[in-house]
Each structure stands twice: as structure tokens, then as C-alpha cells.
Amino acid sequence: MSVAGYAGASDTGRKRRHNEDSYVVAPPLFAVADGMGGAQAGEIASKLAAAALEDTDPGAMSGPERVTMLIQEANRRVHERANADPSTSGMGTTMTVALVEGTSVTFGHVGDSRAYRYRNGTIEQITEDHSLVNELLKSGKLSPEEADTHPQRSVITRAVGTDPDVDVDSFTIEAEEGDVFLICSDGLTDMVRDADILDVLDRFHEDLDRATKSLVSAANRGGGEDNITVVAFAISDASDADATERMPAVDEADDTMENVRLPAVDTMVVPPEEVEHVFVEPGSPEAVAVARRDPISPAARVRLVLMMLLLLAIAAVLLVWGLLR
Length: 325
Ligand code: MG
Hints:
This protein is 38% helix and 22% strand. The protein contains eleven helices and eleven strands. The chain has helices at residues 41-55, 63-84, 132-138, 144-149, 186-189, 194-204, 208-221, 240-245, 255-261, 272-275, 298-324, and strands at 2-11, 21-26, 29-36, 92-93, 95-101, 104-110, 114-119, 122-125, 169-174, 180-184, 228-236. Strands 2, 3, 4, 5, 6 and 9 form a six-stranded antiparallel β-sheet that branches. A five-stranded antiparallel β-sheet has the order 1-11-10-7-8. A hairpin with a 2-residue loop joins strand 5 and strand 6. Helix 1 (41-55) packs antiparallel against helix 2 (63-84) and helix 6 runs antiparallel to helix 7 (208-221). Mean pLDDT is 84; it is low at 240-294. The structure holds magnesium ion.
């Protein structure tokens, strides 16, 4: 068995100015990285991580050892860059990687970019989010419904690049004929329910280009609050020639349109002092707080509105003063 088809699609979404997600479709390797950091550092982090996957020589390594080594190499590069360049200080990225070797598919991941397996009309999430909300779910402090709308659902507990070392979760599963695997950033899973992801795969599991594009569209219809990235690959007995004929779909959104529609606000990392309070919960003592995905904090939004009101008031005073002279 081998990779029979694959596709990748990524979109800025409807609320962000930049796409800080990156992905890799380079059979037998597939990956999604969701970057975070001030200004455009998140973009740099996810791109560095993706490049590390593609140009690191795995030597004789295979399976979990290889996948873990690749993510650790990505971690080393992102961390090194963040230390060398103050404008990218503190940047990081999620990273979920799949490596296909015959019938075995090995996954390695850090953060909350998920992998799913579609098999016989069912879908199963096969990675466990490294997120605050998942910690609270596991310890019974939150219900799944509460988790869906939790204000800190964007806080992840592990990231690639924020520390000198990273703990990688890895596992291997045996694929069956017809299995489709999906790797995606939270911009998909926060906007589209698993049942609706399944619906798309039921319809388009034989046309992964269409499937990935449909999922991106569904996330945008759901609000498009974050960057959306979807990578899909199918395992089958079909020959390798099939896979090389089918080019991966690179579907970047038109950034110009996004820029017209959206205010000029840069992505920010929530500072540690604002994040720490969410870890007061004894359920997550080991958590290293990494906050992200807040393009603008509530406090900053209030400041922005006050500033605009002040400017309007000054303009009004000047206008009246000018008319009275
Ligand atoms: Mg994201």
C-alpha cells in the first residue's frame, strides 16, 4: 500500500490579515504548522518548521524516531532564530506530522493541530490536543460544550520553538485500504464540527483536492475566525504513479482582498502575566502557558476605541473653533 492521493489547502480566513499556518505535502511526509508570535513572527515560525521537515536528512531513521527527530530539529531552528532575532522573540508553532511507510502511518505532534482518520464512513480524531481546554476536559472540570466556547480555548500547553527542548507525542497506526487521513489547524476544527468534517469526507474522499477546499470553505462560512489549513492523504493499493500524477493543490487565498476588508491590527501573543491566571486550576500544574490567536486583546481594544473617540473629539473641537473664527 502507498499514498494514493493527497491535497493541501490553506486560507487566511476572514478575520486575520496574515496566514501564519504552513503545511507540507511531500509524500511520504505530510504536516501542518500553526504559527504564533507578535507581528509576523508566527509566519516565520511555521515556515521554519515546515522547511526543517523538508530538508532534514533522516538518515536511517524511520517511524516514531524519525518523526520525533524532525520535530525536534524544527524546534531547534525556531528557537535559535527567536533567540537571535528580538523581533521574533517568543515565537512558536504547533506541528503535526505524518510519515507513511508501507501500511504504517506514524504521527508526531505538538500543540493543537489535529489529525483525523476517515475509515468506512466514520471519522476519528487520533491526536490529543496539547491545550489548556483539553487538560480541563480530561480532569472533568469542563464539559465538551463548555470547552467549545471556553475563552481560553486558544491556549496551548506545548509549542515548537518556545523552549530549547520539546516533548513530542508520537504513535504509529496500521492503515487499511481506503483510509483517508486529515491534518488540520484549529482554524478548521474551531469552526467546523466533526460531524460536518465527516460529511465532506463522505462526499469527497475520492477527490481530496475538492475535500480540502470544501473544508476550508466550510470554516469560512462558519466565521473564518482564524487561518485555516487542511492536508489530506489517502492510503490504497493503487500504484505510486497515481500519486505523482496528482499534484498537490496549493490554494492560498487572495491576501489583497483580506487586507481591504480588515483593520490593520497585528497578531499579538498574550503576555505571560495575562495567561498565568488560567493555570491557577490545580488540574494543569505542569502546563507551560503559551497563548496565541488573540489578534487584539480586550484591553487593547478598549484603548483603541478610547483613542479613536479622543481623536474624534479633538477634530470636532477644531471644526467648531474654525467655524467660530
Ligand atoms: Mg490557528
